[in-house]
Design a protein that fits this description.
This protein has 220 residues and is of the alpha/beta class. The protein is built from six helices and ten strands, in the order βββαββαβαααβαβββ. Bound molecules: adenosine-5'-diphosphate (ADP).
Length: 220
């Protein structure tokens, strides 16, 4: 499903954020990518989501080589992805429900079907009773759950979450991880980055560890 082969990412200043990284993630796996701050986790996620391109090497997602992808093909590729990135902003002047409806508006679903799907997504993250609230009224953990609902409303086959539990207390983080686990259990491929994978090791058979841009280890 995701195949990275000798991926290198060099930024203009000459710094190599990733150095010859190779791994395979098969459909339905749940994988954590871990490493200290600056190890290259966010860079790897931007490459996987085709936000940036590798300097060398290839990344194949669903049979498509992202390095060779035409720009106009990217929106189609993204339909396979649910992205939960740290800089993804919620719309604070819209209701919780409207935030989840937004990605569906682009797909052009009939309003009734869109509302049904949005509520199903909110239900999965435990926010159904908050649909009329505005995000500002939600706690940090609830806002993160809203971001997850928005990411899954199009029923993506792959969920990519960059540090989804950063800035959350342990209880809220555990709730978020349970939500990801539930998606994994129904067959969604889940890739999560975190600078602290130790305490979540019991959730996943696989942890990929980055150190200064290199993949230094894999534990099961
Ligand atoms: P992590 O997510 O593990 O904290 P990052 O992928 O954000 O690591 O960063 C890896 C390295 O690449 C860091 O040294 C960082 O400063 C550098 N880096 C990340 N993004 C850019 C960029 N857009 N331009 C230049 N350097 C970058």
């Amino acid at each position: 499903m995701i195949s990275a082969s000798a991926v290198t990412k060099r930024y203009p200043e000459g710094l190599e954020a990733l150095k010859g990284v190779s791994f395979e993630i098969t459909a339905g796996e749940m994988v954590f990518i871990t490493g200290r701050s600056g190890a290259g986790k966010s860079t790897l996620f931007r490459l996987l989501a085709a936000i940036e391109r590798p300097t060398a090497g290839s990344i194949v997602v669903n049979g498509q080589n992202l390095a060779a992808l035409r720009n106009r093909a990217i929106p189609y590729l993204r339909r396979h992805f649910g992205l939960i990135f740290q800089d993804q902003k919620l719309l604070f002047d819209r209701s919780v429900l409207d935030n989840v409806l937004l990605p569906l508006a682009i797909v052009g679903l009939p309003p009734k079907e869109a509302a049904r799907r949005a509520r199903a997504a909110l239900d999965k993250v435990g926010l159904l009773d908050r649909e009329k609230a505005h995000p500002i009224a939600l706690s940090g953990g609830e806002q993160q759950r809203l971001a997850i609902a928005r990411a899954v409303v199009n029923r993506p086959a792959i969920l990519l979450a960059d540090e989804p539990t950063a800035n959350l207390d342990a209880d809220s983080a555990a709730v978020i991880l349970e939500i990801f686990r539930a998606f994994h259990q129904v067959g969604v491929t889940v890739v999560i980055s975190t600078h602290d994978a130790q305490w979540m090791a019991h959730l996943s058979p696989r942890i990929l560890r980055l150190e200064q841009g290199r993949l230094v280890g894999e534990s099961a």
